[in-house]
Structures are given as C-alpha cells and as structure tokens.
Amino acid sequence: MATREIAHGNRQKEKVSQRFVVNWINNYMGTKISSKTVLQMVREGRIGVSPIKKGPVGDFAKPIWSQMETAFVTFLKLEQANSKKQSTLTELGL
Predict the structure, then answer these.
(1) Using an 8 Å Cβ cutoff, are 1 and 21 in contact?
(2) Selection from 47, 52, 44, 56 nearest residue 22 by Cα
(3) With left for phi above 0 and alpha for psi between -120 and 50, is residue 43 left, alpha or beta?
(4) Within its chain, how far is the Cα of 57 from the centroid?
(5) Range(s) of the domain holding residue 70
(6) What DSSP string describes 43-88?
(7) Is residue 54 assigned to a domain?
(8) Does residue 9 sit in the same domain as residue 35?
(9) Which of 49, 58, 60, 82 has its CA 20 to 30 A from that of 6?
(10) Distance CA 9, CA 39 (A)
(11) How far apart are the C-alpha atoms of 19 and 23, rounded to whole Å?
C-alpha cells in the first residue's frame, strides 16, 4: 500500500529514504513508530508477524504440548457426551 502511494510517479527515478517512508506512514496511519524500530524489525524479519511474547519460553516441546492439548479437549468432549456435570475451571486446572 505505502509503496504504491509513495512511488506513484517516481518509478526508480528517485530513491526514498527510510525516514521519509516511516514519517509518511506515521502521518497516514496516525501512529508514532520510530524509524529505528522499523529498521530493527526489518533486519530480524519480523515484518507481518505477531510481536514476540514476553516471558520465559514454555517447558514443553511442540509435539508434546499438542498431544496434551488434544487429550484435554478429548476429556472435555467425553465429559459432555456422558451428560456429567461439567467441571469448573479450577478443577480442570488441577
């Protein structure tokens, strides 16, 4: 979107600086993102992805976590299928 708007008539005639692009986007979108932040995100390949979550990385490997998740969902479905009184969140957490 931004490239089309900025380079509408300037196809490879003039190069546009990073600060110009960031300032233009900030004005256009009403944001206040620093050009240094944009440069860092581009270098790290984090454009178009969700922000990194803070805190420690989980202890479980992905396949194990996925299997635990599937087991938990299966337990809930079986509990509902047997028309049992559904467990509370505290009981499920324990």
Answers:
(1) no
(2) 47
(3) alpha
(4) 16
(5) 62-93
(6) HHT-TTSPPPPPSPPPSS-HHHHHHHHHHHHHHHHHHHHTTPPPPP
(7) no
(8) yes
(9) 49
(10) 25
(11) 6
Would you state the structure tokens that stand for residue 26, as one six-digit string? 């900030």
In terms of Cα–Cα distance, which of 41, 52, 20 is closest to 5? 20
pLDDT at 65 over 60: yes
Structure tokens at 5: 């708007």
Condensed to tens digits (0 to 9), the pLDDT of residues 3-61 reads 565 555 555 556 778 888 889 889 998 989 888 888 888 888 888 887 777 888 777 88
Specify the 3-state DSSP secondary structure of 31: coil
Instruction: Please report where in the chains the tokens 């206040």 appear, as a residue.
Output: 32
Mean pLDDT score, 63-70: 90
- With a CB cutoff of 8 Å and minimum separation 6, the contacts of 79 are 86, 87
Contact (CB, 8 A) for 15 and 41? no
Token representation of residue 38 = 């944009």
Q: Give percent helix, percent strand, percent coil of the chain, each to the nearest 5.
A: 55, 0, 45
In a domain, 11, yes or no: yes
